[in-house]
Each structure stands twice: as structure tokens, then as C-alpha cells.
Amino acid sequence: MRPSGSLLLVAVSLSLVIAAPARTRPHYGGTLRVAIGEAPVSLDPAESERGGREMLPSLSRLVFDTLVTVDARGQAQPGLSPSWQADPGYRRWQFSIRRGVAFHDGTAVSSDAVAASLRTANPDWKVFAAGEAVIIECNAPTPDLPAVLALARYGIAKRTGGKVVGSGPFAIGRWDPGKKLALSARDDYWGGRAFLDSIEIELGKSFREQMIALDLGKADLVEIAPDQARHAVLEGRRVESARPSEWMGLVFSRDIQSAEDGKLREALALCIDRESMNNVLLQDGGEPAGTLLPGWMSGYAFLFPTAIDLQRARQARGQVQQAPVWTLGYDASDPLARVIAERIALNARDSGMTLQTTASAAADIRLVRVPLPSLDAWVALSELARSLGLPQPKFDGEPLQPSASASTAYAAESALLQSQRVVPLLHLRTAVALGANVMGWREDPDGSWRLQDVWLETGKP
Amino acid sequence: MRYAVYNLSIHPPINLRTNLRINLHVNLRIPGMLSSFSSRFFSSLLFALLFLVEASAQNWAGAEGLLVGKIASATGPKTMALEVLNRSSLNAALSDDIRRNLLTQLAATGVRFLTAEQAAVSVRVTLSEDLHSYVWVAEIRQDAHPPAVVMVSLPRSGVLAVEPAAAAMVLHEISLWSQPEPILDVAVIEGNPALMLVLDAHSVTLYRMQESRWLVEQALPLTHSRPWPRDLRGRLVWRTDGDNSHLFDAWLPGVYCRGSGSAALAMTCFESNDSWPIGADGFSQSAPFMSSRNFFSGTLSPGTGTQTTAPAFYSAAAIPREHSTWWVLAAVDGKVHLLDGVTDQVMEKLKWGSDVASLRSGCGSGWQVLATGAGAGRNDKVQAFESIGREPVAASIPLEVGGAVTALWTGSGGTSVVAVVHSWETGEYEAFRLTLTCGR
Question: Is A102 among the domain residues?
Fold first, then answer.
């Protein structure tokens, strides 16, 4: 029997009273207080990659615009450059420069200023101004240059007297290297004034210090370690997790030296129990990885097995008479890295190999964490390869095109993995805990924050 | 009472920028309960859907043919065991269709299908996806060789999931347009051909309906000297006042644009802090919009009854009464205010979002208020409310949308509301026409 219309109306009316909080338009105003673990000592975007992990690009984009941005689907969108074009060989590019944009010191973002900034960021390019546009000439075909220019290190900066000035939605108010950064919103930002009036960022705080600051109401936004995200949810905290994106894996310090060396590397890759690493050590804070790019980004990661295969590992190990003792180095300041390194040593022992963990930087193998550098698959693959000391992936067999197809990326990534220089372990989720008044939180799939879209419920309109 | 529920979600063909996407949620009483108008209306929509099903199938076939070609060139006409796995967001029915089509097309190349033990070749096709494409991967195993891998990619876009509705009044959504850039407002003029204006941050674009697709007729760039606010809003109104040279008006923060012309459109924009129209035709108010923010000041013109001021608000909806018009405001203070011409009453129980709009459905009291609110997960919802006494009460089951509602404006004539949704799944901005049909 169907309920009558009146009953339905009553039910609907009741649902009205107990409905979830209403969705409101953003409010302007207020100061967002952030605490993070990274402690960069420079804000210059050209130096960002030397500062540490993924926080810096998110911060850098608040102050420094890039010519191009990459949207949440990995596609290039206009930034400081509203349009661009390339020659048929993708070596010579022309980027027009948006009119009427100024640096935070009031000077115009001219094509000359943009060219100077890009020359600093990449001395290998030939960059020069041409009227209201900038010409970039690359040494090799670079069909993905727009997505490359969206990387934070290509943020457009004016460098004078040891200071850097950007044109982004926030200007630097106070900069205490490695300790504190205070930003204030620019009313005249070409992309629309940010909702927040200001952002105060405490740097170099441990996860514990960050959580205490959140609990004491001294921070509105803190990071959570991948292995702590589930616990934080169970404690009733407001947690936002991104897709598994930060690559964690082993990097050999040298290329393969012999066939036996290759067999041992194969054995090591096969004996690691990624599933239990993720479930037990990480509390499902990531997912097992057999590739550099995560599956949600590439679409083909399932082709690379991640399951432990101890039998094959022992077979491979058995083909080498005398196995050397390898040292496995990890970042001593990263508690997660230590437990993962120890688990790998245990797994290796099960296959008849010996790994000695060490906090020393000089090791045969390093346990490495690298944030996903871009949402463009090809740029991400190239940047990961660069970070890990691998050769640059190459387009193979397909005509040049602005965006690599899945099959092109698959071929390139297969070649990188076949070099046996790296052993993928996990893709980790980045997570944050938010105060109750933080609204409009947006995080790209790669874990980048978009603080320019955040607003505070307590802010005054 | 028996109902037939047609809940059809059509996955789009490859050309996603065109309006080949309809999420139709029809709740029809049967048998023989449709008015002649409703019958024509739904028949047209179902016909359009059938066209889209066909169009969609043809485009899947292109990708299927490409993959079959790659498999066939790797294997030749051998005996084959085919397995199809779905790891993507495609639903089971589509996945089954694709599997059947792959079998058919492979058979046409001379392949015979046997069990895995008997076949010379084993092929596993995995329907996967990346950030913006479907990725179909075939792993081909023959003899003792490592598997060969071939793959094809085709653009993907999501489909809004709509929950079944069964309330006294039923909200329907019809997709009008989607694009990556934020849509501020859309106005459609029915006719032959139908015309549509789309307002975004850069332009007003005129589209003409041709063979069930909206084709760009003309793009009129907006001119403005100051940066737009981050939460940009805009209003677009077709002029129906008989002045043929004045065709439409567009309001944006600090800017007013006037569209005119006959054979070709022209648009002139002015820096202006003139008031924007709020409400619906016949029950219009205007209020100044704060040019660097995202809300209206509380000054109303001409006002309602003795009231010409109100709290600052995001949106307003008229509730026509027998001898007066009440106004519901979604105020910046997060509360819903009811102006009855004399008093400003805060409706404490109403937990609405920031966007409200009037809709003349002819059902119930004739006019309803559509209001946004938080739906399941990160999705917003839109729900119709009826004013019984002073307190608006829900008149429909909420319509869950697959994203955040960024605009809700009463359409020309008041018989529909334009809603713009920022889709979580596709990342695109999608404009819908919302209408209400009466229940019992």
C-alpha cells in the first residue's frame, strides 16, 4: 500500500526540520590559521622543489600565478596567459599575457617580467618577450608545455633586492623563513578576490603539535599523517582525504649492474607484502602500487601486479648464488618511513635476502616519498622520473599531441619500470583536519589545496 | 494509484560540449492520465531520448570497433576466450552492451569463441578510466608469451544520479547546457528554431537549436574594467516588452549589458551599479547588488507594502497572494526572512541554502518557492515549498543534484527555474531547467 499524499507531505515536512545544515554561498572575511609540517626557508617558486614535500606548491600558488593552470581533470586552463599556440613541432610556443594584471608592488605583469621569471626558473629554455606575448623555445619537442608551466616552480615572480613578489590572490604580509608566513588577500586580484581576508601559516610543526593546535582552537587547518587519518575520523574529527597520490617506493642508487642484480631486484619487488603494509601499518591510508602513476590517473595501473608472490621471489633469489647485503635508507624524521623500511627488511628476509635499514643518506636503496607533481599524466610521469633520477619518458611511436594518450603513457611507464631502478610500494592519501568553521574546502585529486576558495562561516560579509 | 517511473540516464556520446545529455526523471500516472500538453511534452522528450540512445550507441561503437581492430591485428582470426571486466564508472547494463558488441564485432572478423581451456587466445578486456577518459584495455595471451596489451581511450563525462520521486508535486530537470566555465544564467526562447542565451564570465553566447543540438550562433564578449568577485553571479533576462531592438539585458557585479539588434545581435556594456531585477515577471522587485561581493543590499524597489528595506540577502522569491505579494529572502545572516509587506519575520525552522526562486506551476496555490539545501554527501538538493499559512512547507521530495548549485533564477514567464550545478563528477557547470508537475 502506498502512503497517501498527506502522509508524504508530513514526512517531507519532518525531513525539513531535521535536515542537514543548509548549503550557503561563501562569506567574505576572517583569518584562516594553518599549521603544517613543512618548513620552507624560501618562497621563491623557482626554488620550491628544493624545499620539501607537497605543501609548497599549494602555498606558492597563493602568492604566485602561473601562466597556465591544470584543472581537476588534468586539463590545461588559462592562468596569467589567456591563450597560447605552438609551432607544428611543439618547440616554439607563444603565450599571450593577460592585460591589466599587476604584481603586489603595483608594477605591471609585463611580458618582459614574465620572460625574466621563466628564464630564472628554467635556464635551458630560450625565453623572450614579443609585444604582449612571451615566446618560449625548447630544445626538444614539448607538446605538454602548457601543463609544465602550471607547475608551481614556474610561478611568475618579480625578483628585486633579494625579495620575490607575485601577482596571486594573496600578498606576503610577514615571512619568517621556516617558521611563519602571513598572507593578506588582494582586493584587485584579476581572478576574483579570495573570500578570506588573511591566512596565517605556522611552519615546521609536528603532527602532534598540529593536532594540539587544532584541539585548542589555535588552528583551523592541520595536516594528518596517512596512517592517522582513520583514527582521526574515529575520534570524531572533521577529516578530508584526497585520492591516493603521493608515491612511496624504493629507489636503487645505481642502474642494474648484472643479470644477478636484476634477479635480486625482481625478488625484492615480488616479496613485499604491500597489502598488509597498507592495511596494518597505514590503516588503509593509501593503496598498494605497482606503478608510478596512481590508477585513478592512468587507467592502466591494474596491469602491474602488486600482490606478494613469495614463491616467485624465492625462485628469483635462488638463481643468484651469493646475494649481497643491501642497505635501505629512510628519512629518520618520518616515523612512517621507519616502520615501512623495517617491514620491507622483514619481507626480504622471507625470500632469503638481507636488507639493513639505515637513516644514512648513503644507501644502496632509498625509501622515497614523492607527491604527485601534476594532474597531467605525462607531466606527472616526467616529473616523477626526474625526482627519482630516472631517464625522461619518451613519446614512442605516436604523433606528437598536446596530451599523451593512455597507451603512450603506458608504454613510457612500462619502460621506466623495466629499468628496475625503482620498486613502487604505495600511493598514500594526503589528509587534513579542519575546524568546524572552515567552509568551501577544495582539494585537487593530487592533494593540492585551494585555499583561495576557502571561507569561514564566522567571517563577516 | 499505479505509477510508471522512467528513470533514464544516458551516457553522453563523444562530443560532450554539445547538449546531448538528458537526465529525465519522469513520474507519470497511467493509464491515460496525461493532459494533451503533457503527453506532447513527454513524447517529445522520449523521442529525444531515443535519438540520444541511438547517438550514444553509435559512439560507443566507434571505440568498440577501434579496440576490436587492435585485438584482431594482434591475434588474427583464431579461436578466442573473451572476458570483459568493468573497473570504471560505467553501469552494468552499459558494460554488458559493450561486451555483447565486442563479441559481435570480433565474430565478424572471423574469430570463433571457445572456453579458455580450448581457445588459442585468451583476451581480457578491462573497462577502466582515468581522470578524463574511459580507457579500455585488452590483455591478449597466446602461447607462452607474455600478454600483449592494446588500449583505446575515449572522453568520458558523468551522469547525474537522481533519486526516484514520489511526492505530491514532482520536480523535473532537463539539461540545457554544460561547459567547463561557470555558467551564470541561461535564457531559452521557445520557437522555431529555439534560441538560447548563455551568460558566463566572458560573454553572452547565442545558440540556435538545430537537429536536437544547440549550435553557436554568436558570441558577444563582455567588457568590464574591474576584476570579477570570486563567487561571480549574473542575471540574464530576455526582453518581452515589445521593443524589438532591445532583446535582452544582462547584469553582472558593477556591470549592465544591453543586447539589441535584429539580423545580428550586438551588446553594449556599461559600468553600472544599477539594481538587478529579482523575483519573477509580474512580481518584480529590484535591489542593488554589491559589486565586490556576492549578495544584494537590503534596499528593495519599489518594495513590498510598506517595506523597502530588508537584511542583505543572496536571493529572493516572490509568493503571490490574493491581495499582495510576500517575499522570501535567503539572507546573508543564514536565515530565511519572510516579508509580508508590514513585518520582517525570521523563519527559524527553515534550513535553506542561499538560493531561492519562484516558480509558477499552476499546482496547489499556483506558485511555489524552490530552495537549495545540503543533500547527501557533497551534493546539493533543490526542493519545492508551498506557502500554507505563513510557514512554507515542503511540497516535493528534494531533487538531489550531482554537485553544488551555483545559480538559481526564475526563468522568463515564471514557469520554470534555471539551476546551474557545478558537477562533482565532471567538473563542468551544467544548466538545467527545473519544472514542477502536479500530483494528486
Answer: yes
Q: Are B424 and B403 in contact (CB under 8 A)?
A: yes
Q: How many CB pairs under 8 A join A and B?
A: 154
Q: Judged by CB atoms within 8 Å, which residues 115-144 of A form the interface with B?
A: none
Specify the higher pLDDT residue, A178 or A10: A178
- Which among A5, A453, A461 has CB closest to B293? A461
- Which residues from B are below 8 Å from A405, CB to CB? 153
Q: Round to whole Å and give the CA distance between A178 and A234.
A: 32
Q: Beta-carbon neighbour count of residue B243 at 10 Å?
A: 9
Query: What digits encode the pLDDT tens for the residues A59-73?
Result: 899 999 999 998 888
B235 plus B375 within the same structural domain: yes
Q: Considering its fold, how many domains does chain B have in total? A: 2
Q: What is the mean pLDDT of residues B196-200?
A: 96
B171 shares a domain with B79? no
Asked whether residue A308 carries a pLDDT value surpassing 50, the answer given is: yes
**Quick check: helix, strand or coil at residue A436?**
coil
Mark whether B259 and B114 lie in a shared domain.
Answer: no
More confident residue, B274 or B28: B274
Sign of the torsion angle spanned by Cα atoms A212, A213, A216, A221:
negative
**SS3 category, B396:** strand
> To the nearest whole angstrom, how far is the Cα of A413 from the nearest Cα of chain B?
13
Domain membership flag for residue A10:
no
Pairing of the two strands A76-78 and A68-70? antiparallel
Q: Are B195 and B204 in contact (CB under 8 A)?
A: no
Q: What is the pLDDT of residue B55?
A: 39
Predicted complex ipTM:
0.79
pLDDT at B279: 77
**pLDDT score recorded for residue B24:** 31
Q: Which of residues 331-370 of A touch B (CB under 8 A)?
A: none
Residues of B in contact with A19 (CB under 8 A): 351, 373-374
Are both A149 and A264 inside the same structural domain?
no
pLDDT in tens, B367-389: 899 999 876 667 899 999 987 66
Domain that holds residue A179: 24-43+50-63+168-220+435-461
Q: Is B321 helix (H, G, I), strand (E, B) or coil?
A: coil
Closest C-alpha to A407, from A305, A294, A300: A300
Domain end call among B155, B182, B213: B155
B372 CB neighbours in chain A (<8 A) are 22-23
In a domain, B340, yes or no: yes
A25·B133 Cβ contact <8 A: no
- Whether B32 shows a pLDDT value over 50: the answer reads no
**pLDDT tens digit string along A240-258?**
888 899 999 999 999 999 9
Q: Which three cell numbers stand for residue B91?
A: 553501469
Q: Chain B residues with CB inside 8 Å of A188's CB?
A: 226-227
pLDDT at A48: 61
A401 vs B: CB within 8 A? no
pLDDT for A325-341, tens place per residue?
999 999 998 889 999 99
Domain count, chain A: 3
Query: Are residues A169 and A428 in contact, defined by beta-carbon separation less than 8 angstroms?
Result: no
Mutation pick from B132, B139, B315, B332 vs chain A, by most beta carbons of A within 10 Å, is B132
